[in-house]
Design goal:
The complex is a heterodimer of chains A (224) and B (52). Chain A is mainly α. Chain A is built from six helices and no strands. Chain B has a domain of 34 residues. The chains are: A mainly alpha (224), B mainly alpha (52).
Chain lengths: 224, 52
């Protein structure tokens, strides 16, 4: 699928997601309208996990094969992952202030999600500070693998520890669950955010390929 | 307790779409800038090849 087509499909998915999140899903009894933040907060968080796991897989593949395409995939996915993690944290804070009365608390889930985002900001900084690709890529790959290890710990945080963050509503065991219509709204929003990740990753990969082409042409011009 | 918080909901959605749109705009600017540099470099390479 071409980027333009994917962009249009993603846009249509977001229009549907907004309908399901704002109109179709029932209003939550206790929190009221503010609960609807959940429909984009959760998918943004899950997508950041997926993006960082892709970094981990790409980094391992690069260390095993030394093929630069894996390094490129990992680097681009890390950048897109940081965007989603940032959006997830921002939405969480905008939900926490009216519901908890505070913007932030250092509980396990919140702290680990912030740490995860910061690890990948550090990963991107390694890329920015080391210009020699042959030195940069292996160091970055190691940081990428270590960062990805944090993903399952973060996912399990609200299952292992008693946290201020709400308990899981999906696959949370006995007593957990979500109203069917809310579940549908979450699934549609999740699909839209998932498509957005694929779209952004493809656009970012195209930029990275062009940047490498520019680097190559600059070398050719200098050598002539 | 009934929080409601329609204003917070609107603020959150604006933040989410602003972050995503901002990133797409940055990617587009970056791509356009790189495409221009490629055009300029390719014409320099061609000119140098002709001169040689």
């Amino acid at each position: 699928m071409k980027d333009r087509t994917l962009g249009i499909v993603t846009l249509a998915a977001f229009v549907a997601a907004l309908y399901f999140a704002l109109i179709y899903a029932p209003t939550e009894t206790t929190m009221g309208e503010v609960q609807r933040i959940f429909y984009f907060h959760v998918p943004a968080g899950i997508t950041s996990y997926v993006a960082f796991l892709v970094v981990g897989v790409g980094s391992i593949a690069f260390l095993a094969t030394r093929d630069p395409k894996w390094d490129r995939l990992a680097y681009c996915s890390a950048e897109v992952g940081v965007v989603f993690a940032g959006a997830n944290i921002a939405l969480g804070m905008l939900w926490a202030k009216p519901v908890w009365g505070i913007w932030w608390t250092w509980d396990a889930r919140l702290t680990l999600q912030l740490l995860l985002a910061l690890i990948f900001v550090a990963y991107l900084m390694v890329g920015a500070y080391i210009s020699d690709a042959s030195r940069r890529a292996p160091i970055q790959a190691v940081v990428g693998v270590l960062g990805a290890v944090n993903v399952p710990i973060n996912y399990l945080a609200i299952r292992i520890w008693r946290t201020q963050h709400p308990s899981p509503v999906i696959a949370g065991g006995e007593g957990s669950g979500l109203d069917a219509d809310m579940g549908i709204a979450l699934a549609v929003a999740g699909a839209a955010v998932g498509l957005l990740y694929v779209y952004l990753l493809r656009r970012r990969l195209a930029v990275e390929r062009t940047r490498q082409e520019v680097e190559y042409l600059e070398q050719v011009v200098t050598a002539q | 307790m009934n929080v409601d918080g329609l204003g917070w909901l609107i603020a959150a959605y604006i933040v989410f779409f602003a972050v995503v749109t901002g990133y797409i705009v940055l990617l587009s600017w970056n791509q356009r800038d790189l495409d221009r540099r490629i055009d300029a470099l390719e014409s320099r390479v061609d000119r140098k090849s002709r001169d040689a």
